[in-house]
Amino acid sequence: VDAEDEESLKLPLLGLKNEDPEPIKRLKRELQVALSEEDYGAAIRIRDHPFMVLYTEIENKRSEGNDVEANILSEELNKAIQESGEADEA
Q: Which of 3, 69, 73, 76 is most buried by a 10 A CB count?
């Protein structure tokens, strides 16, 4: 893995937040482990998981001050999690 790939994996969303849905917390923990083990292939797969893609978009909207769009995307994420059946996994 070249330095550019490694740099693209340094995501601001690694920190666990109490309000994060359980599947997001699980994915973040898996991503932390993959990065600590320098398993960049696994880290990229986790980063590109549909829930993480949506979560990243939500965080970006919040950081831009676009809370309305972030809330809409957050509802979309929660709906996707509910529909996936992963909502109850802890």
A: 73
DSSP string across 37-90 = TT-HHHHHHHHTSHHHHHHHHHHHHHHTT-HHHHHHHHHHHHHHHHHHT-TT--
Structure tokens belonging to residue 10: 């340094």
Q: Residue 22 and residue 71: Cα distance in Å, rounded?
A: 18
Residues 46 and 14: beta-carbon distance below 8 Å: no
What pLDDT does 3 receive? 46
Under 8 Å between Cβ of 50 and 80: yes
Residue 73 and residue 58 in contact, taking contact as beta carbons nearer than 8 Å: yes
Do 58 and 70 contact (CB within 8 A), yes or no? yes
Mean pLDDT of 31-49: 94
DSSP symbol at 28 = H
